[in-house]
Structures are given as structure tokens and as C-alpha cells.
Amino acid sequence: MKDTPLASISHTLRALPDDQPLLDDSLLDTLDAILGEELQEVVALFCGKLPGMVDTLLLSLRSGDHESIRHQAHNLKGSAGSMGALALTDLARRIEWQARQRQAIPAADAPSLAALAAATRSALAERYLAQPLPAAGEPARPSSLDTE
């Protein structure tokens, strides 16, 4: 397997604290207080877009394009951070930094990124969504946020 920027994602995941929670309860409580019921729509929108964001980042990782990796990781970091997804934000931050440093990240460990994103998506959905999420790759349910 050719060495692409995917060569150190397992190292990156191992560097995440074992006791780091998936979600920032304090931030989510603040968002709930500010947004009220609209938070469910925001969570549904984020959860619907998360698989595509991760897929795009994984494609960039496989391509070896450090600038694209940096850009996609930056986008994921911002979106995950705004939703209180602590572990996913931290991982995206580390991938972004590695891309800036032009460090390698191994393709064999890409499923770890996808698994962390899926766990985050499930935790948010369990906490905020009454209806189950569509499987990754299926269209998300329509949101009033899409038309505003």
C-alpha cells in the first residue's frame, strides 16, 4: 500500500484521551437553552450531513492531497465543534494539523474515523431525535432549516 497522508490516524486516535466524552454536555445544554426545540432540527441537519463530510475527508485522505485534507478536516472540526462533538472535533483538529505539517496518515485506519463519526451521530440522535436517523448514505429527512 502506498504511503498516503492516512499513515498516522491510528496514532492520532490513540492520542485521544481514553476518558474523553463524545459530547460536551455543557455546550449542548447551552444550545438547548438558546435554541429550544430548534436544536432538534439543527441536530438532524448535522447528523444528516455528517456521513458525507466524513466520506469527503476520507476521499481526501486516500488521495494524499494535504491541502484538501486540511480543508475537509477544518470543515469537520468546525461543524463537530459547534455541535459539542468533543472527540470528533479533537480528531479533526489533529488531522488538520497533520495535514498542515504534511504528515502521513494510513488508509488502513480510516474506519476508525468513520466509527467515531458514527458513534457521535448515534449519541446526538439518541439524545435529541425522536425518529431514527436514516442510515449513512440515505437522504436526511427534510428540515425547515433547508428552506430558510
Summarize this entry quickly.
The chain has 148 residues and is mainly alpha-helical. The chain is built from six helices and no strands. It has helices at 9-15, 25-35, 38-63, 66-82, 86-100, 110-128.
Oligomerization state of this entry?
Answer: single chain
- Indicate the structural class: mainly alpha
CATH class bucket:
Mainly Alpha
State mean pLDDT (0 to 100 scale): 82
Total number of helical segments? 6
Model regions low in confidence, pLDDT < 50 over at least 5 residues: 1-8, 139-148
**How many structurally independent domains?**
1
> What proportion of the residues is helical, as a percent range?
55-70%
Give the overall silhouette.
globular
Strand fraction equals under 5%
Please give the CATH architecture.
Up-down Bundle
How many whole angstroms does the radius of gyration measure? 15 Å
Describe this protein with a few key phrases.
Four Helix Bundle (Hemerythrin (Met), subunit A); disordered C terminus; single chain; 64% helix
Folded structure, characterized:
With 148 residues, the chain is an all-alpha fold. It has a single domain (21-128), classed as Four Helix Bundle (Hemerythrin (Met), subunit A), CATH 1.20.120.160. 64% of the residues lie in helices and 0% in strands. The chain has 6 helices and no strands. Helix 3 packs antiparallel against helix 6 and helix 4 packs antiparallel against helix 5. The longest helix has 26 residues, at 38-63. The N and C termini lie far apart (46 Å). Residues 1-8 and 139-148 have low confidence and may be disordered.
